[in-house]
């Protein structure tokens, strides 16, 4: 799965990937027949915030016309300045909180609100978990057509700050100040905020930030990836690994629990990276195969398995969606579970169709993007091929809009 960290991405104004369903979908939030009120950029007004949408923006209304505002909490009365007006919604910046929510807290980061990396530092952590659960449930109902009762409470991170093991920083020449900025993209533009530390990063990463700032990139426009290597795992420089070591054991246990519940004897770990899920679940099955396109990751996966004495699995280089059929000829489909952990854009359509044709006993879909996950699960469940048994969200990304989900699909018996 592609790393969703991208602290530089400005969530309040971000759009989902071009081939992904829209998470904001303003038309779903305001009646399409409601005529837009006479709003214009620069206008100052007061709003009552009624909700916080997926992506982190609060939802207010002017005569039923939706206005999105970042850095607010449901129930607050706020003063805002309109910055953008569209046919079905508007956006605004927060000017002042007139009546704060009891759930509002002081952000730990001095750059919060300016830096685009975090959206929820102003919200108490218990409420962040509730928000993410509701947002996942809303997306699954609206995009996937699944009942909210299938969404479990979000599993919390043991430490809601200082958890990230990977960051991507950018350099950009600041012409007005005649200096090089080194940090993350702003929340409201493509300009780079100059940062000296990051409060959601592990302390060792902040030390790396300080070292890089002592010897910064030679010019603007360059990116620097900082990473802490996971203990006991070989991960090539450009290969994916989960960015939160603290909640990673619980993620692995959730996958094992659901795999154990299905009774599957064989496992296919698609988009396996350096072999994390296949290796962690090896004890639950008779045999497993991992498939990954990244050549260096496949070699690392083999070494990771060998280092743990795991001999009931193998790793194959290739496109997972093209290999489903051949692998399920080796493993009986009615005794096989498939773990898919694709990029945030979701599983390619040929992969979804291959799963529908091959009909394995179980599909465990791991995703950091609830909107594309709901879309893909809707495809898999069409015509009663699979049934969604449940979704377990995990807060691998506290203080941000992102949330990891494990969805458990089971093959329906033929009528």
Topology of helices and strands:
Layout lengths: L25 H4 L14 E5 L2 E2 L4 E6 L2 E6 L6 E9 L3 E11 L25 H20 L21 E9 L4 E7 L6 E3 L8 H12 L8 E5 L20 H15 L3 E5 L5 H5 L6 E6 L2 H13 L5 E5 L2 H11 L5 E5 L8 H10 L3 E6 L2 H12 L4 E9 L9 E8 L4
Parallel strand pairs: 4-6, 11-12, 11-14, 12-13, 14-15
Antiparallel strand pairs: 1-5, 2-3, 3-4, 5-6, 7-8, 7-10, 8-9, 15-17, 16-17
Provide an overview of this structure:
The chain is α/β, with parallel strands linked by helices. Helix content is 25%, strand content 26%. Strands 13-12-11-14-15-17-16 form a 7-stranded mixed β-sheet, with helices on both faces. A 6-stranded mixed β-sheet has the order 1-5-6-4-3-2. β8 and β9 form a beta hairpin. The chain starts with 25 loop residues before the first helix and ends with a strand.
Number of alpha- plus pi-helical segments: 9
In the CATH hierarchy, the architecture of the largest domain is: 3-Layer(aba) Sandwich
* Radius of gyration, taken over Cα atoms and rounded to an integer in Å: 22 Å
**Overall outline:** globular
Order of helices and strands: HEEEEEEHEEEHEHEHEHEHEHEHEE
Tell me the quaternary state. Answer: single chain
Give me some keywords for this one.
415 residues, alpha/beta, OB fold (Dihydrolipoamide Acetyltransferase, E2P), Rossmann fold, 7-stranded mixed beta sheet, 6-stranded mixed beta sheet, 25% helix
Describe, in short, the structure shown.
α2 runs parallel beside α9 (370-381), α7 packs parallel to α8 (349-358) and α8 packs parallel to α9 (370-381). Helices cover 25% and strands 26% of the residues.
């Amino acid at each position: 799965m592609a790393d969703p960290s991208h602290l530089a991405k400005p969530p309040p104004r971000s759009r989902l990937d071009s081939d992904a369903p829209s998470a904001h979908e303003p038309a779903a939030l305001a009646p399409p027949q409601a005529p837009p009120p006479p709003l214009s950029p620069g206008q100052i007004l007061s709003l009552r915030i009624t909700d916080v949408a997926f992506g982190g923006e609060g939802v207010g209304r002017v005569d039923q016309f939706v206005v999105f505002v970042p850095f607010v909490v449901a129930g607050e009365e706020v003063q805002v300045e309109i910055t953008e007006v569209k046919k079905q919604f508007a956006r605004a910046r927060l000017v002042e909180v007139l009546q704060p929510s009891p759930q509002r807290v002081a952000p730990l980061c001095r750059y919060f609100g300016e830096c685009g990396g975090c959206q929820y530092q102003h919200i108490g952590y218990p409420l962040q978990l509730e928000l993410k659960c509701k947002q996942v449930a809303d997306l699954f109902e609206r995009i996937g057509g699944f009942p909210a009762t299938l969404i479990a409470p979000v599993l919390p991170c043991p430490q809601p700050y200082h958890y990230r093991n990977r960051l991507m920083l950018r350099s950009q020449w600041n012409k007005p100040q005649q200096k090089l900025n080194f940090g993350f993209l702003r929340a409201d533009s493509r300009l780079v905020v100059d940062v000296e530390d990051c409060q959601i990063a592990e302390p060792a990463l902040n030390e790396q930030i300080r070292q890089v700032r002592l010897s910064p990139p030679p010019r603007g426009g360059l990116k620097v990836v900082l990473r802490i290597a996971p203990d006991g795992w070989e991960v090539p420089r450009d290969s994916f690994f989960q960015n939160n070591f603290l909640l990673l054991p619980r993620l692995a246990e959730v996958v094992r629990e659901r795999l154990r519940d299905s009774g599957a004897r064989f496992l296919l770990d698609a988009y396996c990276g350096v072999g994390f899920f296949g290796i962690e679940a090896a004890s639950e099955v008779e045999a497993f195969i991992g498939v990954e396109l990244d050549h260096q990751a496949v070699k690392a996966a083999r070494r990771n398995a060998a280092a743990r004495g795991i001999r009931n699995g193998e790793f194959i280089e290739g496109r997972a969606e093209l290999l489903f059929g051949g692998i399920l000829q080796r493993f009986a489909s009615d005794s096989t579970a498939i773990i898919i952990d694709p990029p945030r854009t979701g599983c390619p359509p040929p992969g979804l169709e291959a799963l529908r044709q091959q009909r394995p006993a179980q599909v465990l879909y791991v995703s950091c993007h609830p909107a594309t996950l709901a879309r893909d699960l809707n495809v898999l469940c069409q015509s009663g091929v699979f049934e969604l048994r449940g979704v377990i969200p995990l807060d691998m990304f506290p203080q941000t809009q992102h949330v990891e989900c494990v969805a458990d699909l089971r093959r329906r018996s033929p009528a």
